Predict the 3D structure of the following.
Amino acid sequence: MEHLILIHWNKSTGPIPIIQYPPEGAYPSKDIFLKIWAQHELNKENNLIELDSILEDKDQSVISVIQEFEGEIYFLVLIIKTKSKVSDVITSDILAVITKNLLELINTNKFTRAVSEAFNTIKNYTKLEGQDLISFFQEKIKFTILQILRNGVITKKRVS
């Protein structure tokens, strides 16, 4: 993954880039963001879109997830340098949760750190394959079970 960009869609002026991580380099042109927006409008049933070869570097692809937050529309744009389908590796649901978490922190002092963590989470998650991915979730499940056990025995009454 090359870049993570968070865009606010202003109904009168169009796309407004909020932040790019890593911050090096220029934002893609407004025309690129308009093409991404158009694809979201054409594919309303899917909140994840993938666009190949719309950037100057034809080896780069764009993945975008659209999200509404507090009546405003935002989209998370990932610029990746690969020919494989990222949606096969990371789902739109995971990207939607990451976007939602970022938007909840947008007006706080934790926002820039959250963007950095989101970038690294997505980058590391897409590197996981097969058995590694299963282990990734199993470790989280084991941790959750241990936390529950540390908090004490769960009674049948508390479960229902």
Notes: The longest strand covers residues 61-69.
